[in-house]
Amino acid sequence: MRITDLRATTVTVPLEAPLRHSNGAHWGRFVRTIVEVDTDEGITGLGEMGGGGQGAALAFAGLRPYLLGHDPFALEELRFKIANPTASLYNNRTQLLAAIEFACLDIVGKALGTPVYNLLGGKVRDRVPFASYLFFRYADAASGIGEVRTPDQLVEHALALKAAHGFTTHKLKGGVYPPAYELECYRALAAALPGDRFRHDPNCALSVEEAIRFGRAIEDLDNDYYEDPTWGLNGMRRVREAVRIPLATNTVVVNPEQLATNLRDPAVDTILLDTTFWGGIRACVKAANVCETFQQSVAVHSSGELGIQLATMLHLGAVLPALTLAADAHYHHLTDDVLTGGKLAYAGGSIAVPEGPGLGVTLDRDRLERYAELYRELGDYPYDRDPGRPDWYPLVPNERWADPGQ
């Protein structure tokens, strides 16, 4: 079997409301690039990639000559063709590789008539549990609803998500408002949901000293972990020494070299495996196997997915024996998807692992074209800017907090 073509379509899919974070916002929609890889046996594989509010179709077009004639089963060869580690100093293609690997695994699974999880060693669970990824949100521009700014609004939103989807783990994306205000919000969340588990993610916005103060102020809560409170391995190491909560990261341990450094001189307790950031599902499985050997916990990270990438997260979560923590997903904030049948369904705080061959999901051509047209109409958005503060940009560590009264 050989690859005969590569096609990339950028889409934008609306969110319920704009999501705020330490670096800016998702401006009421996700921009994602859907990849289709064709073969000479008539099998097409699906991949997906984000771009921080920007499309990536041209980047994939540039890789077409690398892929024509390639055997989709030859995934290790593909890794070095696309993302040779020394060449990547000049042309970092890790996330591009991930999307193409998704598509190749989809092809291989379809060719063999088996789900991707069987290509990764076989599943150990049928469903993957998820956390209720909570954001401070602007109101939707059209409806005027959806704002999450106050502690009461945050609690109301979390309770509604729990009622709708069954979440028992709740993660708050912070780094937006002054730390004292976010502490009030986080503690209100924990008080309103007794018996559930919690995570706070300041998104690297805090100084080491502020991160220590905040972490000590939440030590009494039922925390899974404290995610990326500050930037850098050494900063995280200093926080870890001073706070009695496991630390997690998706920013400073995102490749094998950083994982080795962290195992040798621990700064982080839980590694958040992102199928895009690590360069594919297989890279995440490799990292998880190392973590299992060293008894370092892992969880599945979200980088703002539609259903194709969500499927990669589900297949990853299905095969990790040591996965004891709920996965992250932005998915419930979406109003629709590009999949046949629309969005995959939550039940009991979890989503079923797809059972069809390959990734087990199919594209809805009408939806794909509808959201491609919406992208052509609206274009990109600057992920690292805030629509409510047009002249603002963050420092690291940050001290330019949003006003909780606005």
TrEMBL record:
InterPro entries: DgoD-like, Enolase-like_C_sf, Enolase-like_N, Enolase_C-like, Mandelate_racemase_C, Mandelate_racemase_N_dom. It catalyses: D-glucarate = 5-dehydro-4-deoxy-D-glucarate + H2O. Coiled coil: none annotated. The keyword Lyase applies. Residues 384-406 are annotated as: Disordered. SMART domains: MR_MLE. Keywords: Lyase. GO terms for molecular function: glucarate dehydratase activity. Pfam families: MR_MLE_C (PF13378), MR_MLE_N (PF02746). It comes from the Bacteria. Pathway: Carbohydrate acid metabolism; D-glucarate degradation; 2,5-dioxopentanoate from D-glucarate: step 1/2. Its EC number is 4.2.1.40. Residues 151-246 form the Mandelate racemase/muconate lactonizing enzyme C-terminal domain. This is glucarate dehydratase. It comes from Actinopolymorpha rutila. The lineage of its organism: Bacteria, Bacillati, Actinomycetota, Actinomycetes, Propionibacteriales.
